[in-house]
Amino acid sequence: MSDSIRDTWVLVLLLLSWIALLISWLLRHENRFQLNEIGILVKVRTEKQQEKQAKKAGLSRFLYRADGTLRVRTFAAFCDGSDPPPAPGVTFQEPYTSSKRKHVYKTLFKGALVRCWRFICTNGLLAVSLSWWIRNCEVIANELNTDFMNYASVFENMKAAAEIHSMMLPLASFVLALYMNQKMAWFNSVIDESWGVQGKMADLALTLSSCARDCDDSDVRAAKYRLYRYLNVAHLCLYRTVSANEMSRVTLDDVLNIGLLTPAETKALQRSVTPRSTALLWTSLIFQELAKKGRIPDNVLPRVLEIVTQTRGKMDTLAKELTRVTPISFVQLLQLMIDILLFLTPPCLAYKLETQRDGYTVYLWPAVGSMVLSLFYQGGLKFICSM
């Protein structure tokens, strides 16, 4: 196949690819924004996104059974253990038990790396376009009767882009790696605090069970059930204020309907500034009441107060950590640096991989290099944003 026919086919495929990418972008953003009632442009969900969100939310296992009926907690079911709570539907992390390549690549499309596929394809098409341009610039210059687009001019401009790219690459790589390291440290601290809250609540339950002199006593049984209710309420009040999952839509009235609160307790929490701290306060009162009745030793109270205080501190720390945001100027700097670096990659590779040999692979390798770099750098940003 002659060079002219090959270049013509490449040009046709390029144009079709650019058109397909543009249509994909337009379909993605169609009806994405609209004016609200006060004239502000806001983002709206498409029907597909709404269906996906509804399917993801479903019926909270915390509130409902599989048949759709309320999962009402009762003292009798608590005492005989006939209605244990279900396992959570989601976890903090994607569960995996192996680091084998087969499993890693199998779950690749579920992660954050592939969320930037449009940018990756754009950079690949840009690399092919520049490679086609550098091979056909003399023909274009002769047709237009100008020296502006001749081979020497185009080649030197791409060489300049390659020089700038080589200067920016170490800085952008260092800043991105630093930011990813900070985000991973933040993520691990959030997991530690979450597990810490869980552990402290288990400590309270264990303290009551181990220190009660008579576990079959009616007062002790009632105290255990109250402690069970209050710890669940405190845990729920924590996550409903900091998470965007189904727990954020659970109200105190819902908690009342499933038996974890009484009407008086619901009103008290609704008046409280921090319901989770109020629920923890009630747990310490349980131990004080049992100590007054002689059901538990008095020397347990200081330890209980210490655990309650540590639990409150960990819950507040977790809530604050989940609302922490990076300074916008740093995010803007990093995003701008990565975008400029990646848009300089196609001309850089078109210059460094420029060759006079024939074949389709002269267009392939600049595109592959640009797409791989885009995958790592933009994928790294998407990974950070998903945390």
Which helices and strands appear, and what pairs or packs with what?
Elements: H1 3-29, E1 33-35, E2 41-43, H2 47-57, H3 75-80, H4 101-106, H5 117-144, H6 151-211, H7 218-242, H8 252-257, H9 263-271, H10 275-292, H11 301-322, H12 328-352, H13 361-385
Helix pairs in contact: 1-5, 5-12, 5-13, 6-7, 6-11, 6-12, 6-13, 7-10, 7-11, 9-10, 10-11, 12-13
Characteristic terms for this protein:
single chain, 387 residues, mainly alpha, two-stranded antiparallel ribbon, 13 helices, elongated
Can you characterise this structure?
Helix content is 70%, strand content 2%. It contains 13 helices and 2 strands, in the order αββαααααααααααα. It has a two-stranded antiparallel ribbon. It is elongated, with a radius of gyration of 30 Å.
| C-alpha Rg (nearest Å) | 30 Å
Q: Would you tell me the overall average pLDDT?
A: 81
Question: Order of strands in the sheet with the most strands?
Answer: 1-2
Identify low-pLDDT runs: 35-43, 45-59
Number of helical segments with 4 or more residues: 13
Structural class: mainly alpha
**Helix residue percentage:** 55-70%
Q: Tell me the strand percentage band.
A: under 5%
**Oligomeric form:** single chain
